[in-house]
Design goal:
heteropentamer, A alpha/beta, B alpha/beta, C mainly alpha, D alpha/beta, E mainly alpha, A: alpha/beta, Rossmann fold, six-stranded mixed β-sheet, four-stranded antiparallel β-sheet, 10 helices, 38% helix, 28% strand, globular, B: alpha/beta, binds adenosine-5'-triphosphate, binds magnesium ion, ABC_transp_permease (chain E), Branched-chain amino acid ABC transporter permease (chain E)
């Protein structure tokens, strides 16, 4: 089993604070799903941003199927089959819902885009209902769904999700996790950050615990979810 | 809402309406928050919860309806007046003041600072300095509770998503309100920390503060909130203890997932 | 002053003519604003650049206006691109106001480069000046009418481009959230360059039309920049049809000066009109967000 | 004495006066070069230091400060905008530096300048009065006054009304417009409605160019009259002949048939002399001759000697070379310059000026008459 | 040379005052004010008219200049409170043009484009011109120092904190319990008062004011000064003003030594060099020479 994504001794951060990630090594095999959990400010989002090309790494490497991603701009990473849903600012507020989805498929051929948009409208009736509305008028949870929808406009090799369920109603969150599981089942590798940790570990195969810019634990998701130490410290009980 | 409570409501909303160019966000919402409770307001995404907060806190005007706070009609008042009256809300999508530090963001919400007058700002009387010191003291305590001590001197723009949410709660606490409105305070907050926050809010209630919380985390709601008000499509749906509403078929259908009522 | 309805109609018509001259630079301004979210006052410099480029082609090399106009577009667009890449792009992270200030300095720089090369003398295009047409006592100048036509065509074209094409969508996406656009596969810098090129080019065409209507010198753009900015703001920053409409409001507002106050208070009347509009619509007539 | 004498020029090289300043500076430099090749002032070479006033009083004052305090100029010349002149005037008299100006505002020579100001531009009252009378003489009865916002718009209007009424005519309309605009259609409509036989364009080159074009488009068939500085020969490069044909201009002028005038025209070469350049040519010449006459190139000496070389019974000269030669020979001179006879009254205003009227025909000016 | 340097320092003082005034309105509160020259002009005219026509003593005239501008600032703030960013820019720009055109056209009051000359200066005429310059240098820079200290205190106070919060997000400031409009009005008034006071001082130094002197170019210079110095930092305003004057003046000497170009080209080179330096400065120090820093530290 060759790793799809390999992160090696990655060090990076923002401007002067350039060591938020203090040497992270993670590997994600093809078609696998891993959940990253950890306290607020641990560097989970920073890690995803670094993989997605939004941050310049100070040292270390990121590879996708052996190809070096480090140094590529976000669009370069996207073109190689990585889709990313950021935690914040993950929609285009003044574009309509439909245009947001179309932007999600910017790199796809026109026909595919039309087809997938219709597919998403069928899957998320709320989006269909609001297709002409500016995305800025969506409620918090609706935005989250739209952001997810945009990522589904492409058929990525690797999907990076930063707290996809934040702000969703239990019912919506549940169906979102179902969706994620389904996407995964179709063969997409997923790296997901979640504070809804138990749910996330329930559908993921691997778990990664990130604390203060370092990988504190890795292992099969089920094992981590049942580890009392991990539960106490990071999973709230 | 059938059982008439002996205490008068601290917050009473009646027939609140607001639409945005054809989208009806609030469609005659009515609800009451009794003093000394931690009341939850839950409902599907897009039910109008945040819009209700916007209207209550004066950030936007309702098209119709009344908001009575502590016997006083505050409908359509300016936000600062409403805050002054003792009602403070937090924002769902954390709106830091990016170029102020976390500490300054917290201090900003301090009330009754004489140093906000021009003369006092220049002359710096003892009253101002004392108040500032007191506010700092409080800010440090709040930050400590919310795990923000380490980032107090960071600009708000340089916070993680969860830290911004925490700061959002912290700011509202700084205002020492009588009624605190929290819009999804623990979305994106680490479960261990949100349990701590829940217990903190519980102790605030015990000290006499009233809290109205919008939240989608059912564990959090179940452990902390009573009563729970459910709204849907801009309207009041049902109210009761968590167990009561969770058992309601309409609520299950519209809101809860399998896991919650399983 | 006003004797009958014809005089009023004439003033309105004059306003439309004056407005149409402001239209292209205002659209150019809003085109850049729509994507990059900063007010680019260097539009004045680009307009002057276009005016001079067109003049050189027309008066020195004898090109007809139909050929000189595209050249004005090209040269001004390239200058705008150069200014963006060399000066403004590195400043964008520092915030829109910093870029706006730099763009004022850029206008001064361009003005003086032109002054260095061409001197201060007024120059006129090599064009016959046509007499007005008269309809029932109302006069219209065919040349100005033609300029209005050019402006409306450009405005319409750009509106369609931005509203309905993939490029237009990408432009608005970059305006909203350049980082996210990048994540979705758009090169924000390329989009920015396209916007700046189109915006600068339109300003250049506008400058050339001003030149055809009047005459040119290094201050040509500077003279109209206030009105152009006003038009863009009144119409709604970032809105292409807004810029066209705003240009009309400002044009008519200025021509109305004679009726309301005195021609000496032209600018004042225009600003009163602007204030009035903004009192009722703080985000401009067609501006979406604030 | 070997250190050069320094004179200062403060013309507008940028800003609204930009179309005029460069030619003005060239005219002054020409004079200085000629004087230097004629041996300078008592053997001292002359240096012309200049600063751009940016057509802005604030920048003008800073420029004047530099010229006076750093270059230590002994005379300042070539200020154009009235606001700049008024702003730098106090600096000049406080530092005893005479100031030669082309600014038109009547108030300038009313300042307490203790003889330091010399203005070659006839004051606006005189100019308008003369011009209006001339127009009356040519049969004008309804004259429209189209004035750029300037220090003399209102006083011009008062004078015109008075003179027209006395002559049996009327000012048929008066519009003050903003100068730095690019369209004046509604203003021109007002002119058209007024059924005037003449329009007086009391503005500057950029705006008058636009007005002429607009008047042509509107089909105005009356007389178009303006100051020569508002439509110098360079308009022919900007506007087609069919637009300019018939435009009448006027300006202060020396005697036409005097050899001096013809020589001056030749000296300026192919470039037509605009009125401001003619005036600053005279500024430089007067400053140099006055210094030579007084035997010392200080501000006070220059101030005190200007009138000596300009009026009286001396030998007529029209250029600096001849003037220096005659003064060196101990002869009295009476300088008559390119802009006119250059005689100043006690306030520093020019007097006894004649005016030259010209009409545009086929891309050139033809002299109509000199009065 | 000394006299010249002193005069330029006096000018720098005016610019510094203006930049300080602008900094309260724009730097701290985030209200774009491209009409600052209008407030400057109001102060100048008020003081000039009161001292020349009604013979008020000069210090009263200065105070009146500040008060008149402050009043205009307060009214302005009330009118434009709803407008943001660039929309505010155009209205304030328009305000300055209105002031300039009114001064040009209302001849009965302002003497029109002729301007007002013979404005008295402290001990002018009693002392030699160089002494007068020195006296004024003292007055202006004392004013700068006083205003600086006051504004710096203001900016590092809870009041300043609220202003900065309003700059970033009005809604949040309002929810924090701050009456946003009232803060904006006060900030605008204070800034306008400083601008007006600067105008009054300027009028009595120059002895002459005219509408031409209050053209947008001056606004551009001051905005550039503030940006160059660092928006938000009071020290930045002063450093920026000195920088701009130094730039304006030093380019004279540089352009003079370039051979082989005509005077217009020299003038063009000079203005071009000024513009270019500012662009380069911003390019390499986008936050200005003195970036805004926070003084409220959790750990002192
Ligand atoms: N400014 C606006 N313009 C148009 N529609 C709006 C606007 N704000 C909210 N809405 C709409 O009103 C409805 C209620 O939105 P609101 O934000 O109150 O929902 P919510 O209950 O807070 O949902 P969530 O749990 O997802 O945050 C939604 O359908 C939303 O799209
Ligand atoms: N733009 C930034 N500049 C500087 N520091 C930042 C910036 N963004 C985040 N940080 C800091 O980096 C650290 C890690 O942030 P990150 O967003 O990766 O956390 P996280 O693990 O995603 O947390 P959360 O669960 O709260 O979203 C935090 O301490 C945060 O304060
Ligand atoms: Mg995160
Ligand atoms: Mg919400």
């Amino acid at each position: 089993m060759t790793a799809l994504l390999e992160v090696e001794a990655l060090v990076g951060g923002y401007g002067a604070a350039d060591e938020i990630l203090k040497g992270i090594t993670v590997a994600l095999p093809e078609r696998r799903m891993a959940a990253i959990v950890g306290p607020n400010g641990a560097g989970k989002s920073t890690l995803l941003k670094a993989i997605a090309g939004m941050l310049r790494a100070k040292s270390g490497q990121v590879r996708l199927s052996g190809e070096l991603l480090t140094g590529l701009p976000p669009r370069g990473v996207a073109m190689r089959g990585v889709a990313f849903v950021p935690q914040e600012a993950n929609i285009f507020p003044s574009l309509s819902v439909r245009e947001n989805l179309e932007m999600g498929g910017y790199l796809e051929p026109r026909a595919t885009v039309t087809q997938r948009v219709e597919g998403l409208f069928a899957r998320f009736p709320m989006l269909a209902e609001k297709r002409r509305r500016a995305a800025r008028t969506l409620s918090g949870g609706q935005r989250q769904i739209l952001a997810m929808g945009m990522a589904l406009m492409v058929a990525p090799k690797l999907l990076l999700l930063d707290e996809p369920s934040a702000g969703l109603s239990p019912k919506a969150a549940e169906s979102l996790f179902d969706d994620i599981a389904a996407i995964h089942a179709e063969g997409t590798a997923i790296l997901m950050v979640e504070q809804n940790a138990l749910e996330a570990l329930a559908i993921a195969e691997d778990g990664i615990v990130l604390v203060d810019g370092r990988v504190a634990r890795t292992g099969p998701a089920a094992e981590l979810a049942s580890d009392p130490e991990v539960r106490r410290l990071f999973l709230g009980g | 809402m059938t059982e008439s409570s002996p205490q008068p409501a601290l917050l009473e909303i009646s027939d609140l309406r607001r639409s945005f160019g054809g989208v009806v966000a609030l469609n005659g919402l009515a609800l009451q928050v009794r003093p000394g409770t931690v009341t939850a307001l839950i409902g599907p995404n897009g039910a109008g919860k945040s819009t209700a907060f916007q209207c209550i806190s004066g950030v936007i005007r309702p098209d119709a309806g009344r908001v009575i706070f502590d016997g006083q009609d505050i409908t359509g008042l300016r936000p600062d007046r409403i805050t002054g009256a003792g009602l403070v809300r937090s924002f769902q999508i954390a709106r830091g003041i990016p170029r102020l530090t976390v500490l300054e963001n917290l201090l900003l919400y301090g009330q009754a600072q004489p140093g906000e007058g021009v003369a006092a700002a220049i002359l710096r009387p003892a009253a101002m300095r004392a108040r500032e010191e007191a506010l700092r003291e409080r800010a440090r305590a709040v930050a400590a509770r919310l795990n923000l001590t380490r980032v107090l001197d960071n600009q708000a723009a340089a916070l993680s998503g969860g830290q911004k949410k925490l700061m959002e709660i912290g700011r509202a606490l700084m205002a020492e309100p009588r009624l605190l409105l929290l819009d999804e305070p623990v979305a994106g907050v680490n479960p261990s920390l949100s349990a701590e926050i829940a217990s903190h809010i519980g102790s605030l209630r015990d000290e006499g503060m009233t809290v109205l919380i919008v939240e989608h985390h059912m564990d959090f709601v179940a452990s902390l909130c009573d009563p729970v008000i459910v709204m849907a499509e801009g309207r009041f749906l049902v109210q009761g203890s968590f167990e009561q509403v969770a058992a309601d078929a309409r609520v299950q259908e519209a809101y809860m997932g399998r896991r919650v009522h399983a | 002053m006003i004797q009958d309805w014809r005089d009023l109609a004439q003033v309105l018509l004059n306003g439309v003519m004056a407005g149409s001259v402001l239209m292209l630079p205002a659209i150019g301004f809003n085109c850049i604003f729509a994507v990059l979210r900063y007010p680019n006052f260097a539009i004045a410099g680009f307009a002057t650049t276009g005016a001079f480029a067109g003049w050189v082609a027309n008066a020195v090399y004898g090109w007809p206006v139909g050929l000189a106009l595209p050249l004005a577009f090209l040269v001004a667009g390239l200058v705008a691109l150069l200014a963006e890449e060399a000066a403004f792009r590195p400043l964008r992270p520092a915030g829109p106001l910093t870029v706006a200030i730099a763009s004022v300095a850029m206008t001064l720089l361009i003005e003086n480069i032109l002054r260095f090369s061409f001197g201060n003398d007024l120059r006129g295009y090599d064009l016959p000046i046509l007499r007005d047409w008269r309809f029932d006592g109302i006069r219209i100048n065919p040349q100005q009418l033609q300029n209005t036509g050019y402006a409306i065509v450009a405005a319409g074209g750009l509106f369609l481009l931005l509203g309905f094409s993939r490029l237009g969508r990408a432009m608005r996406a970059v305006a909203d959230n350049p980082v996210l656009a990048d994540i979705k596969g758009v090169d924000p810098n390329r989009i920015a360059r396209v916007a700046v090129f189109i915006g600068g080019g339109l300003a250049g065409c506008g400058g050339m039309l001003v030149g055809i209507d009047t005459s040119i010198d290094p201050l040509t753009g500077f003279r109209v920049v206030l009105s152009v900015f006003a038009a863009a703001v009144v119409g709604g920053l970032g809105s292409i049809p807004g810029a066209a409409l705003g240009a009309m409001v400002v044009g008519v507002g200025e021509e109305m000066a004679g009726l309301v106050l005195s021609p000496a208070y032209r600018t004042v009347t225009a600003f009163l009109a602007i204030l009035l509009v903004l009192m009722f619509r703080p985000q401009g007539i067609l501006g979406g967000r604030n | 004495q070997t250190a050069p004498v320094v004179f200062g020029a403060l013309p507008p090289l940028t800003g609204a006066g930009g179309p005029y300043g460069p030619a003005m500076l060239r005219a002054m430099q020409g004079v200085v070069e000629a004087a230097n090749s004629a041996g300078g002032i008592k053997g001292r070479q002359i240096r012309l230091a200049f600063e751009d006033d940016q057509t802005n009083p604030d920048a003008g004052v800073r420029g004047a400060r530099k010229l006076i305090d750093v270059d230590r100029v002994q005379a300042l010349m070539g200020t154009w905008a009235s606001s700049v002149t008024t702003a730098v005037a106090p600096l000049c008299w406080e530092n005893r530096v005479p100031l030669f100006t082309v600014s038109g505002a009547d108030s300038i020579t009313l300042l307490p300048h203790q003889g330091h100001i010399f203005r070659t531009q006839p004051n606006s009252r005189l100019q308008i009065e003369t011009a209006t009378k001339w127009l009356l003489g040519k049969g004008a009865r309804r004259v429209f006054h189209m004035a750029a916002q300037s220090p003399f718009a209102q006083s011009s209007q008062d004078v015109m009304t008075e003179v027209m009424r006395a002559g049996g005519g009327a000012v048929s309309g008066y519009v003050v417009y903003e100068r730095d605009k690019t369209a004046f259609r509604s203003e021109v409509d007002t002119i058209m409605r007024s059924r005037s036989d003449t329009v007086m364009l009391n503005g500057y080159l950029p705006d008058v160019t636009i007005l002429l074009r607009e008047l042509y488009r509107a089909g105005f068939d009356g007389r178009r009259f303006t100051f020569a500085y508002a439509a110098p020969a360079s308009v022919f490069g900007t506007l087609p002949n069919e637009v300019t044909n018939g435009l009448t201009t006027f300006q202060p002028s020396p005697d036409l048939n005097s050899p001096a005038f013809t020589r001056l025209k030749a000296a300026f070469g192919s470039t037509e002399v605009d009125p401001y350049s003619a005036q600053v040519h005279d500024h430089a010449t007067m400053a140099i001759l006055a210094a030579a006459q007084g035997g010392d190139a200080t501000g006070t000496v220059i101030r005190d000697n200007v009138r000596k070389i300009c009026q009286g019974d001396g030998e007529k000269v029209d250029n600096v070379t001849d003037g220096l030669r005659l003064i060196a020979a101990g002869r009295a001179v009476n300088f008559e310059g390119a802009s006119g006879p250059c005689e100043f009254d006690e306030r520093g205003d020019i007097r006894g000026t004649k005016f030259r009227y010209e009409v545009a025909e086929g891309g050139a000016y033809r002299v109509l008459e000199l009065v | 040379m000394d006299a010249y340097l002193i005069a330029m320092l006096v000018f720098a003082g005016f610019y510094a005052l203006m930049a300080l005034g602008l900094n309260v309105i724009w730097g701290l509160t985030g209200m774009v004010n491209l009409g600052l020259v209008g407030f400057f002009a109001l102060g100048a005219y008020a003081s000039a008219l009161l001292t020349t026509k009604l013979f008020w003593p000069m210090p009263l005239g200065w105070a009146a200049g500040a008060v008149v501008a402050a009043a205009a600032g307060a009214i302005m703030a009330l009118i434009v409170a709803r407008l943001r960013g660039d929309y505010l820019a155009i209205v304030t720009l328009g305000f300055a043009e209105v002031i300039r055109l009114t001064a040009s056209n209302e001849i009965w009051l302002t003497n029109g484009t002729d301007g007002i000359s013979g404005i008295p200066g402290p001990w002018r005429g009693d002392v030699s011109p160089p002494e007068f310059n020195l006296i004024y240098l003292g007055i202006v820079w004392t004013a700068v120092a006083v205003v600086f200290v006051l504004l710096a205190r203001l900016s590092h106070s809870p009041f300043g904190r609220v202003l900065r919060a309003i700059r970033e997000d009005e809604d949040v400031a309002a929810v924090a319990g701050k009456p946003v409009l009232w803060f904006k009005v006060r900030a605008f008034t204070i800034g306008a008062a400083v601008l007006g006071g600067a105008g009054a001082l300027y009028a009595h130094y120059n002895a002459y004011i005219a509408p031409d002197g209050f053209a947008p170019l001056l606004t551009i210079y001051i905005v550039l000064a503030l940006t160059a110095g660092g928006v938000g930092a009071m020290r930045g305003a002063i450093i920026g003003a000195l920088f701009v004057i130094a730039l304006l003046e030093s380019t004279r000497f540089l352009s003079a030594i370039i051979p082989g170009v005509s005077p217009v080209q020299k003038a063009a080179l000079r203005e071009g060099a000024i513009a270019l330096s500012l662009i380069l400065l911003l390019r390499f120090r986008p936050q200005g020479l003195i970036p805004e820093k926070t003084r409220t530290k959790a750990t002192p």
